[in-house]
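Hypothesis: this fold can be encoded by more than one sequence.
Test: take the structure tokens below, design a sequence, compare later.
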């Protein structure tokens, strides 16, 4: 396995690796293109970035990204939001955590602050 460091155009050979992932804190689309240009087999989609919140994933965006994945033969690794769901600043995640608690427990919704 070898990768191209686009910053200085050096090639790194890593004989024991079958694949490598790039984690650059970019949008899914930009991260994929950077991974392709540098010879990575995978890239991270960081769910903690605002541009990757659940509400930002339209059907059109998903289909477009799947098509690009097929064309470039690079695979995503989705890294979810790292925060505790109940205290997440991502509204969709926090609301789902509250809904889950209310369904799975005897905790009344009125005790949970939004």
């Amino acid at each position: 396995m070898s990768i191209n460091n686009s910053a200085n155009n050096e090639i790194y050979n890593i004989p024991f690796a079958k694949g490598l992932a790039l984690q650059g804190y970019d949008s899914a689309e930009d991260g994929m293109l950077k991974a392709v240009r540098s010879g990575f087999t995978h890239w991270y989609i960081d769910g903690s970035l605002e541009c990757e919140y659940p509400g930002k994933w339209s059907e059109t965006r998903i289909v477009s990204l799947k098509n690009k994945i097929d064309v470039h033969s690079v695979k995503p690794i989705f890294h979810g939001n790292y925060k505790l769901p109940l205290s997440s600043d991502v509204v969709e995640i926090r609301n789902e955590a509250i809904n889950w608690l209310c369904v799975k427990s005897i905790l009344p919704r009125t005790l949970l602050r939004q």
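Strands lie at 2-5, 10-13, 21-22, 42-46, 75-79. The chain has two domains: 2-82, 84-114.
Hypothesis status: open.
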